[in-house]
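Worked example 2:
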Amino acid sequence: MSRDCLAPQAPAPPGFALPEGACDSHTHVFGPYARYPLAEDRSYTPPENDGAALLSQLDAMGLARCVIVTASAYGADNRAMLDALAQAPDRLRGVAVLSDGVSEAELDALTAAGVRGVRVNLFRRDGRQVYRNGMGLEALRALSPRLRARGWHLQAWLHAPDLLELWPALAASGMPVVIDHMGRMSTARGVDDPGFTQLSRLVADGAAWTKISGADRLTAAGSPFDDVDPFAAALIAANPERLVWGSDWPHINYFGGATDLGVPSDADLLRALRRWTDDRSLRRILVDNPATLYGFP
């Protein structure tokens, strides 16, 4: 049964100047539900936050650009994401979820709309899939030649301890690979976890990108997320040219339970990024790297 998610916090600027052209490289949109209903089979039910709400969020935070990722609650229905892209095509790019029956005309239309990547959902805990829906490796194998031809990249939602097993299949796609949320590491596992060590090595070699995002998902302590500092530091030391940052707005899967740390503040997440970076690496992560990966001018 799906559970109702809490609403995001009201946006507030982070209290420091972002570089011109700064990009939030991981967000989602939901709705309007009257036009774009969620999948019947889903793991969570978020409140409506459509393209207009996202643009208001970006403006309040001082962010110039953004990447919208189709969330698992939509399955392979990309319409809400595409509706949002059409509202600000110069500012926004997309990452889609596909079925292996997608046509050439559909792929061309997605590319023209600003979609630059495809997301696979491989996130497991104790060998079990965490989120229903999403695209798997079988569909990726079928689609990767067609996506490569369009210059798309592969975004992989996985647990870093599974990376040793999954990397050969990801690399076989022949597309640039982006690992979500620092491999969704738990800080309790430490930076010497073999999966996180593999992630750091792939980033260092330029074989993979990662999003130094999701500090609220990795932390055991909550804001200001300082237990995540060693993981971010390891990745920045490995190769700052293969990193992008995202807020994960509007922060699904917060339900207000007794063990829930609460919906994070996007300003706090940006302040953590500022703590991790000097001026040069901040600009790389927020401006230069997203321009390269997502094709912003």
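The chain has a mean pLDDT of 94. Residues 19-294 form a domain with the TIM Barrel fold (CATH 3.20.20.140).
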